[in-house]
Amino acid sequence: MMALGIGCRKGTSANVVLAVIDEALQAHGLKLVHPLVVATGGIKAGEEGIREAALKLGAEFVVLSDEALQAVASLTLTRSEASLAHTGLPSLSEAAALAAAGPDARLLGPRHVSQGVTCAIALSENMP
């Protein structure tokens, strides 16, 4: 399965989120794989741009608990002071991708940052 962890500035549109997802996939030479999950943390649960992007991709939209995100925080590849200040996580998008993809998940690399959106990609053999 593929999990896309997403963070964004408040009010970011679905079209911008989708464009950044496409950039991140292209950077890794990938296409979308189903089952597909688009995940974020509770702090971004109300961001309609993320929710709408998941719907357009035919993906499950998951809002992860702070506990689930903290459980994988030490596995993130990026340490963002801005993310730490706002979410308490070194990278919300990387933690969301890892937590959503399950215990055998691996990040493909550091998060992709563009247009006020962060997108991290994690792959796993099993769903949590």
UniProtKB/TrEMBL annotation:
<keyword id="KW-0378">Hydrolase</keyword>
<dbReference type="InterPro" id="IPR002750">
    <property type="entry name" value="CobE/GbiG_C"/>
</dbReference>
<dbReference type="Pfam" id="PF01890">
    <property type="entry name" value="CbiG_C"/>
</dbReference>
<feature type="domain" description="CobE/GbiG C-terminal">
    <location>
        <begin position="3"/>
        <end position="122"/>
    </location>
</feature>
<dbReference type="InterPro" id="IPR036518">
    <property type="entry name" value="CobE/GbiG_C_sf"/>
</dbReference>
<dbReference type="InterPro" id="IPR052553">
    <property type="entry name" value="CbiG_hydrolase"/>
</dbReference>
<dbReference type="GO" id="GO:0043779">
    <property type="term" value="F:cobalt-precorrin-5A acetaldehyde-lyase activity"/>
</dbReference>
<dbReference type="GO" id="GO:0009236">
    <property type="term" value="P:cobalamin biosynthetic process"/>
</dbReference>
<protein>
    <submittedName>
        <fullName>Cobalt-precorrin 5A hydrolase</fullName>
        <ecNumber>3.7.1.12</ecNumber>
    </submittedName>
</protein>
